[in-house]
Each structure stands twice: as structure tokens, then as C-alpha cells.
């Protein structure tokens, strides 16, 4: 408690290294079937409680050692302000999960000269197990992937499939039926890599304009419908388009009873960052079903004007707007500022006509103080 995230990530990496140098066979569970389906892959199951005690003992040892002599810690080259807010809303349970790791390099001991930061949002359904598992394991699979340095886009995309396979093994053993959509972003130097399953989404705002980066996996998509029907499934309309009359998404981690129609094969894309990007936004469908991308631009600018350029609670403003606009679902919003919010606001006040959400903004249900009006106050 009270430790900086940079130091915490470095401590965890050092403690995990110490654990991995021990003989892990003593933690192996006895009398448990560990073979994957078709004997194609073998999983080793470890006793979680014993391993946890071992980790905390190693962590204590590392802390004591570092108290005597703190090793040089590699600082972050670039500070990214992150605003996060999540609510259960009117749902009985909160099934969303999120992860933010600006200290990705420190956590996984990547010592090259390139900064990396990882962000993700997961929207569970049918229980929280799949979302919990994905939030715990996906970034680990990314960080340990053999291509993380040379081909981070491939590492990110493949890690979704790996996480799906791992959770399906757990779901089969423990009779779990839940699933989760997911969207993740990995910033590597001046490149943005994204990957997703389902209808959780990531968008970019660049020079005051909303930029669409992806197309969510919905069963009404022509290519998704064709894939599902080729496999023998069906897409039917029951208040919305659903796979086999159940799920309103066509790809997800988990959902063991709906495989292979609900695919665990993620889509991904990569983009060059030029320095003109304002912020990145990741959110679940509870947000995007209620708020259009151009409204995001208006909402964030309005928030920055009201707070005089303080962006820390921008996500809270966005979540409140989604709820006001009729969303009853769990809502999670994660905003990663790629520029100083003060600079974003200054650009708006300096040249308000060059910024904004475009002509579609005229239909926005939100009435905001315009940049031009703010400039005159």
C-alpha cells in the first residue's frame, strides 16, 4: 500500500522471478486430470493457495533486500493520464472488468528502449468468471508471448485465443458457462495495437475528431452470420440478432456451450501515432449502445471546459451521460489521454472551428457550452 505503480510492478517482477527459480513441482495438485482435449496439450495444475503463500514470502524477501539497497528502476519515458469509471447501474451484478498497465515493461522485465502500456475492458455475461479470468491472464499471455518484442500485434491477437483455450479448460473442469467480450490496446512506442472479441470497443479522438478503429463482432454482420451458418448454427431475431437464439455477440472468450459458433478468434489492427492524437477510449456496450462516438468528443470537451482542463474524471462524466441517455447495463469507460488535457482544451479555445465532432453533432441530445462561447467568458 502506498507504493508507486512503477515500484510495485518492479517488485512483482522480481518476486515472480524468485518464485520461478524454485521447484514448482511441490505445488502440483495430485489426482487431477491435466490433459487437454485430444491429448494435444497438457496443462499443469498448481495449488493456488500454496503458490500464493510462496509468492508473498518471496515478495517480502525482495522488499527487505531493496530496503537495504534499492536497485536502479527504469522510469517511464512518457506519462499517460488515465481516467477510469465503472458502475453496476441497474443490473443485479457487476460483470465488467478492466485492466490498466502503463508499467507493462516493468511488470514483465522488458528492458529495451521502447515504452509499452496495456489497457483492456472486459464485459462478462452469464457470470463473472470469464471476465475475471481474462482480466487476470490476458496481459500475462501478451507479456510472455515469444513475439512481444518483434511482433506485438501478433502477440496481442494470439493471446486472446490462448486465454480462450485456457478458460475453456477451466470451464470444462469446473462446469462454468460464462463468457466475456473484450477489447485491449497495447501502445508500443509510437504505434497503437488493438485486438477485440465481441462488442466492447475502442475508439480514438484525433484533433477533436472521433476516429473509428474497429467493427464489433455482432451476429447481424454478414460475414459473421455466414461463418455461424457454415458451422451449422443460426442467427435469429429475438429483440435483437442473436446466435442460436441466445447471445447478442458472435465472438467471445468462454461460452463453452456455444463453441464454435461463438468464436474465440480475435480481430486486430495497428496504427501509427503521429502525436496529434488526443485520447483513446475503451468501453463496453453498455456505454456505446447509449453514446455515439461524436458525442464522446462533445462530452469530453465540455468536461475539460468545466474543470479548466483537468481530465481525471472525464470517464465519470461519460458514464453519467450514458446512464442519463437510457443505458441500464453495466458501464465501464477507460480514457487514456495521449496529450495533456490542458493542451487539448487550449487547442479548442484557440481554434474552435477546427475541432468538434462534425456535422452529426447537430443531432446530439446533449447541449453543451461551445468552445466559442467559452472563449468569450
Uncertain ranges: 357-377
CATH class of the largest domain: Alpha Beta
Shape: globular
The CATH architecture category of the largest domain equals 4-Layer Sandwich
Please trace the helix and strand order, writing H or E for each element.
Answer: HHEEHEHHEEEEHEEEEEHHHEHH
Number of helices: 11
Overall number of domains? 2
Alpha carbon gyration radius: 22 Å
- Residues in β-strands, percent: 15-25%
The CATH homologous superfamily name of the largest domain equals: PPM-type phosphatase domain
Structural class: alpha+beta
Total DSSP E strands: 13
Q: How far is the N terminus from the C terminus? A: 43 Å
Helix content: 25-40%
Multimer state: single chain
Here the CATH topology of the largest domain equals Phosphatase 2c, domain 1
Query: pLDDT average, as an integer?
Result: 91
Summarize the biggest pleated sheet.
6 strands, antiparallel
Subunit structure: Associates with FEM1B.
Protein name: Protein phosphatase 1F
InterPro entries: PP2C, PP2C_BS, PPM-type-like_dom_sf, PPM-type_phosphatase-like_dom
Organism: Nipponia nippon (Crested ibis)
Characteristics:
single chain; 377 residues; alpha+beta; Phosphatase 2c, domain 1; 2 domains; 6-stranded antiparallel β-sheet; 5-stranded antiparallel β-sheet; disordered C terminus; PPM-type-like_dom_sf; protein phosphatase
Summarize the structure.
The chain has 377 residues and is of the alpha+beta class. It has helices at residues 5-20, 48-68, 104-108, 129-144, 152-174, 222-230, 285-288, 293-306, 314-324, 341-350, 371-376; strands spanning 81-87, 96-101, 116-125, 179-188, 191-197, 201-206, 209-212, 235-237, 241-243, 253-254, 267-272, 277-283, 331-337.
Amino acid at each position: 500500500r502506498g507504493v508507486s505503480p512503477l515500484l510495485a510492478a518492479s517488485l512483482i517482477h522480481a518476486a515472480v522471478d524468485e518464485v520461478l527459480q524454485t521447484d514448482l513441482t511441490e505445488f502440483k495438485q495430485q489426482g487431477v486430470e491435466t490433459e487437454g482435449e485430444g491429448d494435444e496439450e497438457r496443462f499443469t495444475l498448481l495449488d493456488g493457495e500454496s503458490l500464493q503463500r510462496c509468492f508473498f514470502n518471496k515478495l517480502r524477501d525482495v522488499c527487505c533486500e531493496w530496503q537495504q539497497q534499492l536497485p536502479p528502476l527504469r522510469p517511464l519515458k512518457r506519462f499517460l493520464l488515465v481516467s477510469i469509471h465503472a458502475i453496476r447501474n441497474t443490473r443485479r451484478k457487476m460483470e465488467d472488468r478492466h485492466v490498466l498497465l502503463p508499467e507493462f515493461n516493468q511488470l514483465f522485465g522488458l528492458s529495451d528502449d521502447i515504452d509499452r502500456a496495456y489497457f483492456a475492458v472486459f464485459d462478462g455475461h452469464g457470470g463473472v468468471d470469464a471476465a475475471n479470468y481474462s482480466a487476470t491472464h490476458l496481459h500475462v499471455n501478451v507479456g510472455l508471448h515469444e513475439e512481444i518484442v518483434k511482433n506485438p500485434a501478433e502477440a496481442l491477437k494470439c493471446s486472446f485465443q490462448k486465454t480462450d483455450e485456457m478458460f475453456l479448460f477451466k470451464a470444462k473442469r469446473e462446469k462454468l458457462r460464462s463468457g466475456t467480450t473484450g477489447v485491449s490496446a497495447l501502445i508500443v512506442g509510437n504505434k497503437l495495437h488493438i485486438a477485440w472479441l465481441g462488442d466492447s470497443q475502442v475508439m480514438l479522438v484525433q484533433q477533436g475528431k472521433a476516429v473509428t478503429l474497429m467493427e464489433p463482432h455482432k451476429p447481424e454482420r454478414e460475414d459473421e452470420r455466414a461463418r455461424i451458418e457454415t458451422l451449422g448454427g443460426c442467427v435469429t431475431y429475438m429483440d435483437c440478432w442473436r446466435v442460436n437464439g441466445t447471445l447478442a455477440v458472435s465472438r467471445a472468450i468462454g461460452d463453452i456451450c456455444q463453441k464454435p459458433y461463438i468464436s474465440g478468434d480475435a480481430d486486430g489492427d495497428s496504427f501509427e501515432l503521429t502525436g496529434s492524437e488526443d485520447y483513446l477510449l475503451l468501453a463496453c456496450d453498455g456505454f456505446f449502445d447509449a453514446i455515439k462516438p461524436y458525442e464522446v468528443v462533445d462530452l469530453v470537451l465540455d468536461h475539460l471546459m468545466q474543470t479548466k482542463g483537468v481530465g481525471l474524471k472525464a470517464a465519470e462524466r461519460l458514464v453519467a451521460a450514458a446512464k442519463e441517455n437510457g443505458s441500464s447495463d453495466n458501464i465501464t469507460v477507460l480514457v487514456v489521454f495521449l496529450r495533456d488535457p490542458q493542451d487539448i482544451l487550449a487547442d479548442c479555445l484557440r481554434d474552435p472551428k477546427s475541432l468538434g465532432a462534425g456535422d452529426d453533432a447537430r443531432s446530439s441530445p446533449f447541449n453543451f457550452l461551445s468552445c466559442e462561447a467559452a472563449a468569450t467568458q
